[in-house]
């Protein structure tokens, strides 16, 4: 039984997003999970989990505590290796690829617990995340002129654009270890954007935030989705937010998919209500 409110108690819209769209049948799947089963010893964390993420879609994955939400993200990014099933990215199986190869293809992620270099500044943290875009040439890199200098200027421009986009200019030269939690989460989002992802995986991006910080982060997520045209998988416990900004919701319970549909259907699904409230 979850300590979080069921979807039916979170249907009031905060007005953050007004363009929740019905699914279009001709949209391409960019990410497909097929029959994923993950076990740790004798404990099954996921059982035959299947769902797709489509182009230009903001998909939320919800469920009670221990439902398997973070395990799904860990399988997608390569931190966990399911014993059965497959994951397709742009129609290609990535199930055997290591974490860095998946990231290079365009999968970026944030974590429940902020993952930053605490001793570096905001600017340095976001620059460090650009390494996935760098393909150094030892000769031109050593000489540092011509194409390599142009690349460096280009990378700097991307980083500065991200800093402007996330409105963190005032902390660009501040050490992130000294920043408030909400700003640290924003820097982590900046690091993910620095990878120029096609798919962005957000693991409880509002966890631990106060209401004002939550609203700010929600607006940035919407801006990322709408302006940068990145498909998003959002794991989040704030049901009002999820119902307000998602195009579609997948519900997990005890490692299984129990519902998959638009917010208005999920909010009244008896299986979902039972999962949150118990029998």
Architecture of the largest domain, CATH level 2?
A: 3-Layer(aba) Sandwich
Number of strands: 10
Q: How far apart are the termini?
A: 9 Å
Unreliable stretches (pLDDT < 50, length at least 5) are none
Q: Assign the CATH superfamily of the largest domain.
A: P-loop containing nucleotide triphosphate hydrolases
Nearest-angstrom radius of gyration? 19 Å
Principal-axis shape equals globular
CATH class of the largest domain, named Alpha Beta
Tell me the count of domains: 2
Strand sequence of the main sheet, in spatial order? 6-7-8-3-9-10
Key traits:
alpha/beta, 279 residues, four-stranded antiparallel beta sheet, 10 helices, globular, six-stranded mixed beta sheet, 10 strands, Rossmann fold, 2 domains, single chain
Describe this structure in words.
The chain is an alpha/beta fold and 279 residues long. Helices cover 35% and strands 23% of the residues. The protein folds into two domains: 189 residues, Rossmann fold; 80 residues, no CATH class. The model has no long low-confidence stretch (mean pLDDT 87).
